Fold this protein.
Amino acid sequence: MDDNEETLVDIEETLVDNEETLVDIEETLVDNEETLVDNEETLVDNEETLVDNEETLVDNEETLVDNEETFVDNDID
């Protein structure tokens, strides 16, 4: 095999390697897009949980005030 044939074989092997790399990159892109969607859904879930927790905190603070008033009322009796 002369130098030109070897160079051609090298170029063809590099092309195959590059095509495999492109496929890997495209698969990674798809994986990353799926992960992004999952993360966005998780963010929405977390924001809803935060709202729920804030409402629970308000409820608990109101209950605490009620309990303190009841304690004061009972102490007076």
